[in-house]
Structure formats: C-alpha cells, structure tokens
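#lab-general

N.A. 3:47 PM
ok so I finally got the sequence cleaned up, no stray characters, all 391 residues accounted for. can someone with queue access submit it? mine expired

B.Y. 3:52 PM
send it over

N.A. 3:53 PM
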Amino acid sequence: MRLVDSKVTNFATGCNSNFQGGTALREIGIGVLGGGYMGKAHSVAMAAVGAVFATTLRPRLEMICASRPETAEQYRQQYGFGRATDDWRKLVHDDAVEAIIIATPQQTHRQIAEAAFAAGKPVFCEKPLGASLADSRAMVAAALASGQPNMVGFNYIRTPASQFARQLIADGVIGDVTMFRGEHTEDFYADPDAPASWRTDGTANGTMGDLAPHMINGALALIGPIKSVMAEVETVHASRPGGAVTNDDHAQMMVRFDSGAMGQMYFSRIATGRKMGYAYEVTGTRGAIRFDQEDQNSLWLYRSEGDEATRGFTRILTGPAHPDYQAFCQGPGHGTGYQDQIIIEARDFLQAIETGKPVWPTFRDGLEVAQVVHAALESSEQRRWVDVGDI
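B.Y. 4:20 PM
back already:
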C-alpha cells in the first residue's frame, strides 16, 4: 500500500487541514474481475468510497479483467482503471493488485478465490459464494487457511432501513420474535416467451441460486440461524424459445429458526409486476416491522403501546439518524439508492483489510446461506423437513 498526501487546502480559510484528523492516507490497489452489472457497481463504489466515508485506505483502480481484451479495455476506460486484462490469473498475481473483487459467473468463484488467497490477498466475492455447496466449503477453507480478510456481497440488508430494523429487533423493541415472512420476487422472466439464456441454465443461475440467497441472508441477519426447512422448488416454464430450462423459476419455504420462531419465504423470477420485491415482515410479542425494497427508504414499525384507538403502523422515513445514511445525504427523507448499498460494502471491506478483523458477512456467512439453499433443494426433492445442521 502506498502513502498519499493527506493535506488539503481549505479554500475558505487558506489553512491546511488533514483527513481523518491528520491520519496518513494509504492507497490500496484494487483488482476487479468482471465488468458487467456488478463489476461496474463495485468499480464505481471503490472510486467513491473514500470521499463518501473518508476512509483511511483509498482505493486505486489498478486493474480490471473481462473475458475478451477489447471488452476489458472498454471497461478500463469507462470505469477509470489503470490497466486491463483478459487473463484473471494475471490480475490475481499482479503485485500492484492488493485486494480482489470477484464479480464473475458463479462457476468461476472457487478457482479465482483459492488463487487469490494463495497469493495472500483479501477477497470480496459476489453472492452466491460458490456454484455448489462443495465449492462454498472449499472457499471457506481456503479463506481460513490464508488468514486473509474475506466478504460476500449481500447488499440489500445494508440499506439504512434494514440496518435499523436489525437494530430494533436486537434491542427488543418488538419483543420476542414469533414469525418472519420474507420474499425476493422479480418479474424479469415472467414472460413465458422470453428466450432461454445463461440465466435458465445451471442450478446456481436459477431462483434458488440467484434471488433466494439475498432473502435467506436477510432472515439470518434479522432473526438468527435457521434450524430446519420444508421447501417446494418448481420450474414453471420448462422450455423457452431457444432451449430447455434446466433450473427453477420459483420456490416456497417454511422454516424454523433456532430461536423457535416460525418463518415463511417465497422466491420468484416470474412474479408478474414485481421489480425489486425484497420484502419482509417481522412479528414480535410487543410489536412488528414491515419493509419493502421497492420503497427502500421507508420502514414501518408497530408498537403495542398506548391507546388502542391510536395504534397503528408508523412509517419511518430514513435520515441522518439511521445507520450509514448521513455519509450520503444530510437531509432526512431524501433517500439512498442501490449504488449506495455497494459503497457501504466497499467501506466494510476496506475496514476488514485495515483492521484485520472479520466484518460481516464473511465467507463463513455465505456458506451458511448455501447450506440453507442446499437443505431447501433436498427438502423439495425428498418431500420432507430437512435439518440444516445435517447438511
């Protein structure tokens, strides 16, 4: 990591001031594998995180990798990287690349992560952790053996509203949790005439590999470990123009948490009309919480107190009083967006690197999600309850 000049001129006073109270800033070379949807999001986040959160570690966009030289060069120019390559090994083993972000297809995650850890570099990996449960376990083993910081990309639980919901539940504001209902529903494959593509091939690209991990992660974060599951997983449109569909369209799960709370979850890529249906309801003995990502800057809270005639759900608009909001905007109700969630992830990853201490969610947390997904698939196939601990 390189030291950079932390002195800036205050044009209002003509005096010198330092970021972080005079703490020397350090550059860290970032390598991003994949320049598509999530590759772009992480590149933008790393370019912005220093300004948003005044981090001591300042990312330097060192190298980006894509499948073709011309595409890699396009991403380099568009996102502001110093160099580009179509060889992931070259990026991973480059001395100037000090931290790795994996935003490539799931089947490549394990090989890249294992190589990065062997090279002694921190790794941030997009979800799902591996293309299979075996891959996820191998990636956790590699992370633990290396001792390097590691994180998995579950961004939706990082909205200020969901962070606040997690805080309210942990503080006992709604009492003991008795029931959780969650969904991750979208309609990008609701049209049966939409053509087959990479999304319709392979378990990791189905709804259980693509959408379900986000809400399962959310349930684990809000309520705690899941003890057992009963699931049904279906492919509604078994064929599409261009080929057969080899993965699932939607799924439903009943769960029992370690705490004793009951739960229900539904996941779908064919939920007509739903665009970003990451939503949950949490019922407790003294209150309840509701959230919907399509209105991500609102949280609905019910408290069982006061006159019955005036009780009801209260809409809370997020603002500077809520976690991680003020870094983006000083005005309550103005709101944060999807890209801001990725910037929060970038801050957390840099914190893990700087302190050497794990920051949630680590690879081990990603494995916990993978185990629940695997239990659900096994439950659907065998038509029975499955204990996650037996996976």
